[in-house]
Write a structure and sequence with these properties.
elongated, mainly alpha
């Protein structure tokens, strides 16, 4: 049940732990994309998390 789609479904149902697992899985990528000129930008990281959460909440599988 740890596959990404299952985690997204659990998150959409309000399971905060599922979102934490997703964050941990993609943390390296999120931090990498939140770096500016070699420095970690915590505001950018937070914005990435907000957008990720909103995007996953609005996600609809094409064949649902």
């Amino acid at each position: 049940m740890r596959d990404l789609y299952s985690l997204v479904l659990r998150m959409k149902r309000g399971d905060d732990h599922a979102f934490e697992v997703i964050i941990k899985r993609f943390d390296r990528t999120l931090k990498s994309n939140s770096s500016r000129e070699g420095y970690f930008d915590s505001d950018c990281y937070q914005e990435c998390l907000i957008r990720l959460h909103k995007g996953l909440k609005n996600y609809k599988k094409i064949n649902d």
